[in-house]
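Need tokens for this chain, all 292 residues.
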Amino acid sequence: MSFVQKKGLTPFDYVNYTLLSIISLVSVFPFIYVFSVSLTNPDAYIPFTFYLIPKEFSFASYKYILSTDSFINSLKSTGFITVAGTILNLVITFTMAYGLTKKMMLGRNFMLGCVIFTLLFNAGIIPSYLLVKQMGLLNSYWALIIPSLTNAWSLIVVKSFMDSLPEELEDAARIDGCNDLMVFIRIIIPLSMPAIAAFTLFFAVAHWNSYFNALIYLTDTKKWTLQLLIKTLIIDSDSNGIAAAGANDDKMIPQETIRMAAVVLAMLPILLVYPFLQKHFAKGVMIGSIKG
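Here are the structure tokens for all 292 residues:
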């Protein structure tokens, strides 16, 4: 029996796999180029040259960018926003979703209607900016956290997931003397760990890659996030882009190698975490889609 017969592969499968392999390679090439340029010796770097393998390996660009105060400050800012924002997102989303599952709760239908309304309609940038300004959050990390404590899609998905949990478990817990808070902590939270794991990744990646809100609300360069700093390095092609990163050495390292090193450092945490937690992303898409 041939390999094709064992695996049940058809000519269409071979064509499909070949095309997918080509597309995958094309998608990987930009990442290879970024890594290659970032690891190229600045003295051997030639502008406007395509690199797949560095001619001379060097970590000079990484040492340079890691020695700048602006990069360290932006890393701390992004880390704080990601950790604090993710924790608050989980608390608000899961507690509110649990409340919306209670059919006897006063005003439940009205609140659920408001959530669905925000899913369909958005106030826009100007009202959001005015709200943040009136709250006194401009140029504050909380301007990137408080306005986005949760969102309609997350609430609906988590609520659907909690609706699928057996009500008998809650009834048994109440018979044992648990109130609503203890039921939520001891019963709902342990059963919701797959959803918590998935949405932890969703929220963390969203905060780590936060750019537009930071661009609008943060004016102090010391509070810039990594994405804002990288934008300055990449888009500002003159010396101002490097100056924003704190470069003041006599020997200027080529700007391109610094840009690529900054890009690699910004996406490295996600690249390291995602392969191990990819199944939670896939599971998160299906959470709440099936009841029973």
